[in-house]
Amino acid sequence: MSDKTTSGIFKYLFDQNRPYSVTDIHMNLHKEYGKTAIQKSLDTLVEERKVLEKVYGKQKVYVVNQELHPKVEESELRSMDARIAQLTSELTGEGLALREAEGKLKALTSSLTSAQAKQALVECEDDIREKTEKLSQLKKLSGNVTADDRRRVQDQHRKSLGEWRKRKRITNDIVDAIMEGYPKKKKDLYEEVGLETDQDVGVTLPS
């Protein structure tokens, strides 16, 4: 077994990020490496914790250690998303309120007596000034979240969803591979290994 063989097999597993058996790797790489060489390389990679081995009876499945892939803090993304949504909503609401007050001022000054118009003007100007100040404060707050910040949050959010999808696919592939030689139902396998589905914990993967 050569380092080139081990490196090639690790790169394939890392790039694909899916579980495979020795036979799968042998066939998918067009028989570039023999099964014996592949098994020895996998044993080395498992020992180095670069690859994880799952054994179910006579069935062995190998998948790259997910800790080697970049991690994204989902809690941070949710917090920034919520803050951006809140500021955007408040900014939009205050902008609408300001335009409504300006429209009311225009309507009143065109139909009231001079005295009434002056009083209404004072009231509306106070209202507009208050809303303008609040709008200005909100703009300053929203300015703290730059376009780069928004793009970074969106990129991280997409990466998190991608990581979620990949891990869910890996889990499903492992389960499907095990079920080929498992004598019971899939539900029994979940209970035996302590596996929870998205539905069990009340979450849904966004489309």
Can you offer a commentary on this structure?
The protein is mainly α and about 210 residues long. It contains seven helices and two strands; from the N terminus they run H-H-H-E-E-H-H-H-H. The chain has helices at about 5-15, 20-30, 35-45, 75-110, 115-145, 145-180, 185-195; strands at about 50-55, 60-65. A two-stranded antiparallel sheet has the order 1-2. Strand 1 and strand 2 (about 60-65) form a beta hairpin. Helix 1 packs across helix 3, helix 2 crosses helix 3 (about 35-45) and helix 4 (about 75-110) packs across helix 6 (about 145-180). The longest helix has about 35 residues, at about 75-110. The protein starts with a helix and ends in a 14-residue tail after the last helix.
Write a compact overview of the structure shown.
Helix content is 68%, strand content 6%.
Mean of pLDDT: 78
For the largest beta sheet, what order do the strands appear in spatially? 1-2
What class do helices, strands and sheet pairing give? mainly alpha
The proportion of strand residues reads: 5-15%
Largest sheet report: 2 strands, antiparallel
Order of helices and strands: HHHEEHHHH
Q: pLDDT below 50 for ≥5 consecutive residues: which ranges? A: none
How many separate helices? 7
Overall number of strands: 2
Q: End-to-end span in angstroms?
A: 44 Å
Rg over alpha carbons: 30 Å
Shape: elongated
State the helicity in percent bands.
55-70%
Secondary structure elements and their pairing?
Elements: H1 3-16, H2 22-28, H3 35-47, E1 51-56, E2 59-64, H4 74-109, H5 114-143, H6 147-179, H7 186-193
Antiparallel strand pairs: 1-2
